[in-house]
Amino acid sequence: MNALEGRKVICCVGSGGVGKTTTSAALALKAAVEGKRALVLTIDPARRLANSLGLRSLGNQETRIEAAHFARADLVPRGEMWAMMLDLKRTWDQLVQRSARSPEQAQAILENKIYQTLSTAMAGSLEYMAMEKVYELHSSGKYDVLVLDTPPTSNALDFLHAPDRILDVLDNNAMRLVLGPMLKAGRVGFRLLAAPSSLVLRTLARFTGSDFLRDLAAFMLAFEGMYEGFKERAARVKELLTSPEAGFVLVTSPNPLTTQEALFFHRALESDRIRTAAVVVNRVQRDPRRHGGPDSIEGLREALQLAQLKDENNFAERLCQTLTEQAILADQDRREVDRLRDTLRRVPLFTVPRLRKDVHDLAGLWQIVESLGGD
Amino acid sequence: MPALLDRRLVVVTGKGGTGKSTLSASIALAAARRGKRVLVCEVVAKERVATLFGKPPSGPAIRELLPNLYSVHVRPREAMREYGLMILKYETLYRLAFENAAARYFLAAAPSLAEIVMLGKVWWHATQETERGRPRWDLVLLDAPATGHGLTFLSVPEVFLRLVSEGPLARDMRSMQSLLADPARCSVCIVTIPEEMPANEAIELDRALRQRQFPAGPLFLNEVFASRFTPQELAAVTRGGPLLAAAGESSDNHESRAELSRHYEAVLRDTVPRELSKVPFLFERSFGAQAIDKVSRVIEGVL
């Protein structure tokens, strides 16, 4: 995969269920075997990477894949392969602790109800922290290559714009606009106004009750002075992701719905001036007809006879049905791959054949690496 | 406990790419065939169900796809507006409160407000009554987001109520929560396929859903391959020489997928305490109304 030569950060993006995690792990494995120090960063919920690496748990620390795993797959890595599972809450907490001006300020934020929701349940939070972690790891200089397995975002735009959305929430100016009167009162002794005074606030309070507004104001006070730092850091993250050091790999399967989403994703990246570095189409059915040979019941019956096999229990008929079905799958997959190739002309495209077994060890990952060999 | 199709709200969730929309469409079709008025609510960014029936996307307005079968694409913007108007009654007041910079900020800060109003709209449809006091819809189907997001989506009332305990939204959230927890009115189904990660996700999702006490609906195992050749037949044909190479490879592929199907069916039956319904892999040149009809008949047993 020359398309990724020299990239230090590789982001695998695409819709759920297309094999992003195995592709990410395969890319890290490839880099490790080639002599790089490579780390793959994945997202917690389904413990996916643990599955594909044969690890019981990735905890949430940088874990080196043991030599024994490589030996079992007959591989000799010239570099190192590391893996890490993102812990959303801990990444947020660390970011707050690092950015706070005093331990007291950090404590006040960590204990705030709004912060707790923001850092665990808010949409976009996971995407933001994934990028934050990549940036942190990149800055540490410990790795030559970082591969990010992004969260399965249903909306392509969510991924790149997640930090902006979260930052909007943390923006003091906007907050001041809404909560102005409450904030002023707060600053003098933390006694927040009991009732929101403006018409807008009163109307909004009809939806959520005024407790929420009070919590929001408290959060804002606790966050005082930290927004600029967050914003600056997010800008640097974005800069890194749009630089030539980073490469986006579009991962998809040959299903019409997922290729449609992949194209949608590609356009979304483009509108952010990010070029797709490569496309990986997983689980492509190979066409059995490439072997030639008969594909009709009659023809198969003759072939069975020639091979001195009996045509018992409609053997030829069952073979014919199976061949036809597998050919349908191959046709469907080819159509989708062609569609991607036609639309994304300048982007190198790789197809990974459907493997006979689930990938759950380095040997399985290596099979994928081999498909990623030539453009 | 009432049969699946006799509930008010049926939620379909599972890993992305396992066929949630196909199953939602099929359950809806089966219900419509029994003479029920059914509404499918789609809440993810891209609408799919109408297309499966060969119809143009419904968009944010309810559209009839087939007799008795309707669909709607629930989007945050429109849902917010509808919901806001329901509570505030006056358009001008809504505009004043919601269509300004401050409110946009507020809407971004309120946790998962987009999800709240979307779920709120689904809940509203599920409990809506006609003038004569009869339910407007016999059955509302929620084609929910994939696993992680799906769980977040269904947990939105709980998360919200932790932050906000008064006001009309909190009141509605409580009512939503009780609908989602009531096995007489609601059921949450899982869709998966016989592959390692989707199966593992289904197991974790089942556990998480039961922990949060969502009424457990069936587990649909989609894309199942049934074995077609004996091991002897397979061995013979794969060693049958160049003339049988294509047939041999095809049979080998088929049997390896049948083996996966068998394996994961056994694993799922062991670990997931739900009714399991197998849906065969369909080799359709184009996946449309016919395929949905087939699936809807295969799953009749658990409906």
Can I get a quick summary?
Chain A is an alpha/beta fold and 375 residues long. Chain A has helices at residues 20-33, 48-53, 67-72, 88-99, 103-111, 113-120, 125-140, 156-170, 172-187, 199-208, 210-223, 227-242, 256-271, 297-306, 315-343, 362-371; strands at 9-13, 37-43, 63-64, 80-86, 145-149, 246-252, 276-284, 349-353.
Instruction: Label the overall shape of chain A.
Output: elongated
Average residue-wise pLDDT of chain A: 83
Q: First CA to last CA of chain A: what distance?
A: 7 Å
Helix content of chain A: 55-70%
* Overall average residue pLDDT of chain B: 89
SSE string of chain B: EHEHEEHHHHEHHEHEHHEH
Instruction: Give the count of helical stretches of chain B.
Output: 12
CATH fold assignment of the largest domain in chain A: Rossmann fold
Structure, described:
The complex is a heterodimer of chains A (375) and B (303). The longest helix of chain A has 29 residues, at 315-343. Chain A has 16 helices and eight strands. Chain A is 55% helix and 13% strand. Chain A folds into two domains: 2-169 and 234-286 and 347-371, P-loop containing nucleotide triphosphate hydrolases (Rossmann fold), CATH 3.40.50; 291-341. Chain A starts with 8 loop residues before the first strand and ends with a helix. By secondary structure, chain B is of the alpha/beta class. Chain B has helices at residues 20-33, 49-52, 76-88, 91-98, 101-109, 113-127, 147-163, 167-181, 196-211, 231-238, 245-271, 289-298, and strands spanning 9-14, 38-42, 63-66, 69-73, 139-143, 186-192, 216-224, 276-280. In chain B, helix 3 (76-88) crosses helix 6, helix 7 (147-163) crosses helix 8 (167-181) and helix 9 (196-211) runs parallel beside helix 11 (245-271). Chain B is elongated and about 80 Å long. The two termini of chain B are 12 Å apart. The model of chain B has no long low-confidence stretch (mean pLDDT 89). At the A-B interface, helix 6, helix 8, helix 9, helix 10 and helix 11 of A face helix 3, helix 4, helix 5, helix 7 and helix 8 of B.
